[in-house]
Amino acid sequence: MITFDNAMIFDGEKFYDGQFSFEQEFINTESEDKIDLKGLWVIPALIDTHAHLRDPGQTRREDLFSGSMAALHGGISTVFAMPNTDPAIDNETMVKYLYERAKSLNVKIKIVGAITKGREGKELSEMGRMARAGVVGFSDDGNFLNDAALARHAMEYAFELGLPIISHCQDKDLGKGYMREGWFSTLYGIYAMPDVAESIAVGREIELSYLTKAHVHIAHLSTKRALKLIREAKRDGINITCDVCVHHLLFTDESIRDYDTSKKINPPFPTREDQLALYEGLEDGTIDTIITDHAPYTSEEKEVEFQIAPSGITGFETLLNELIMVSKAGLPPELLLKKVTSDPATLYNLKAGKVETGYPADFIVFDPENSWVVERKTTLSKSINTPFWGQRLKGKIIATYINGKQVFKDEDNVFEERIVHSA
Amino acid sequence: MNLLGKDLFDVDSFEVEDFETIFETAKKFKSAGFTKKWSALKGKTVCTLFFESSTRTRISFEIAAKRLGADIVNFTASTSSLNKGESFKDTVKTLDAMGIDLYVIRHSEPGSPMMLKKYTDAIVINAGDGIRAHPTQAILDAFTMWEKFGKIKGLKVVIVGDILHSRVAKSNAKLLNMMGAEVIFAGPNTLIPAQAERYGIKVSYDVKKAVKNADIVMGLRMQLERQSNGFFSSLDEYNEFYGITPKLMELAKRDSIFMHPGPMNRGVEVIEAVSDSESSKVEEQVTNGVFTRMAILYHMLGGLSE
């Protein structure tokens, strides 16, 4: 048994001053010792329900191991791996193969299976068999399933299997473009997609969820108009939920004035008006969770012209820092932390996301006053496509514990010095 | 004002006074005529870096640089070099290793001049980046207006046609707005960019109304492939509603001029009766292109006084 004392504890709902104990094996201290965490926070390890681990097939960008190390550095215990790998995760064998390999990792990987074979939007993949192998949901992530009749059938299966469809909502034709359409796309000369490219697709998903009763989860919502539709659908009792990508809470269409390809993401950064609506959606509960959409790309892939560069930003290692930044912009930290801990746990029925008796000892020790520089020697992801590259960020994770075991430790933390040997 | 060592990404890289200085210098170069050679940029190396085909802009820069005594080298890739397996970055780094003082870049991708700047300490001039900006065209256009009317402030300029895909229209709107002209974008709704009014200009879908009392009517190249992409329905209808005809020009002021950045699609956006008329300044624009680019190079690259 080890006891953390004097910590500011976030239990998944609220902060309180106090202490808590957990069974542990690997901390090098006497069992009766206390660790004085004065000035530090203890937070449940984070849950990221939308990430791209690039394994198999794209391991020059990331692989299961590097991705899991990056997640632990970011205080993330649970990662939903999206199926846009090469080949796509669209069958039971692949799901089993990834779960088998993930066994040796400290991060808890959950697999999302593809809705259609090869994510091509033509034939349904074997959803039942993938469900049997333990997928947590289905998604053709990145590809909106254009065929509404096929989407309907996928939802009917998902309903039967009790699993959500995670939908990347973007009309295929209107969604051609590399940033959000508006004054800044005109000014920057970048081909752009209007906001309704998203809301039109969201509207279809709402109607199909109404028809099939399936749980449809809208991924990385980015527009005011789509949010409005979801708010109304929820009020009508339709089984629809949604998340927002943390980067969309910090950057706007205006931010890409420097054509930095590490700011290229799909859906693109919102207008300021849309961003403020996303803040409201978090506050009123319309938006259920916050994700990273961790999408590593190599420097070679990203160091090209803006419109040509692939879309995606890494997010694991800066998630908590970004949430702190969002809280500075006006949202309560409790609300934001809930969206990456207890809320996704509730949404996906995971016994996680809380510092509470009976829950796994998955938590982070966080120093809100410390800071770190995002650079090669401090990061563990294979890729560096983050707009924070080279920047000093406030707040530093000094240790991550999974199942009571310390799996990440900041190299210059003074953890051991805080051990108070009991008299 | 000091433009020495500055980059020209778009017209807002400079101040209003800078343009007035450029105009005065261009006027001096022009009055000296085409035969006069200068040695102001002797020993300097200018590289034109053209990732998109262009004849007039590249040649205009080449002549301007040569007149000032600079050495000039041309790099041309018919498409983005990316397609040929060599990245933009590598291309630039290779050229940069050979000691270039100033790049003139044309590229189909917006933001490419700024991207170029990441890899070089040399001065960068944007000669057109995608549908974003074409500052030297806007400067030569403004010079042409200034030469004809003696001022820019208060002029009514109507830019007609495919604004959405036109870097010329966008840089013109910015510059003319900075210098106090009244600018109207006139064209079909499908070809007006989002929130264009925020340039400080007006938008009209009725070209006839827009052109009333205009000092300048500027046409833009209309590419026929826009039709298959649904931006307009037929050439015939487009001509009737938005084509620049002598009848349309009659609605403008008596001493109004017609301008076009070229290349013109005769019979599409403009008919010959206008483009070859006395009020047409199309060839004058080309001539002025050389002198304004001489002035721009002279000020940016540190012209020695003579």
UniProtKB/TrEMBL annotation, chain B:
Function summary: Catalyzes the condensation of carbamoyl phosphate and aspartate to form carbamoyl aspartate and inorganic phosphate, the committed step in the de novo pyrimidine nucleotide biosynthesis pathway.
Alphabetical keyword list: Pyrimidine biosynthesis, Transferase
GO molecular function: amino acid binding; aspartate carbamoyltransferase activity
Pathway in which this enzyme or protein is active: Pyrimidine metabolism; UMP biosynthesis via de novo pathway; (S)-dihydroorotate from bicarbonate: step 2/3
Pfam families, per database record: OTCace, OTCace_N
Residues where carbamoyl phosphate binds: R56, T57, R106, H134, Q137, G262, P263
Residues covered by the Aspartate/ornithine carbamoyltransferase Asp/Orn-binding domain: 153-300
InterPro entries referenced in this protein's UniProt entry, alphabetically: Asp/Orn_carbamoyltranf_P-bd, Asp/Orn_carbamoylTrfase, Asp/Orn_carbamoylTrfase_sf, Asp_carbamoyltransf, Asp_carbamoyltransf_Asp/Orn-bd
Species per Swiss-Prot/TrEMBL record: Mesoaciditoga lauensis
Catalyses which reaction(s): carbamoyl phosphate + L-aspartate = N-carbamoyl-L-aspartate + phosphate + H(+)
Protein name in the entry: Aspartate carbamoyltransferase
Protein's gene: pyrB
TM region positions: none
Residues annotated to bind L-aspartate: K84, R167, R221
Assembly and interaction partners: Heterododecamer (2C3:3R2) of six catalytic PyrB chains organized as two trimers (C3), and six regulatory PyrI chains organized as three dimers (R2).
PANTHER family noted in UniProt: ASPARTATE CARBAMOYLTRANSFERASE, ORNITHINE CARBAMOYLTRANSFERASE, MITOCHONDRIAL
Aspartate/ornithine carbamoyltransferase carbamoyl-P binding domain ranges (all copies): 6-147
NCBIfam families, A to Z: asp_carb_tr, PRK00856.1
Family assignment from sequence similarity: Belongs to the aspartate/ornithine carbamoyltransferase superfamily. ATCase family.
GO CC, alphabetical: cytosol
Enzyme class: transferase
EC number in record: 2.1.3.2
Gene Ontology BP annotations: 'de novo' pyrimidine nucleobase biosynthetic process; 'de novo' UMP biosynthetic process; amino acid metabolic process
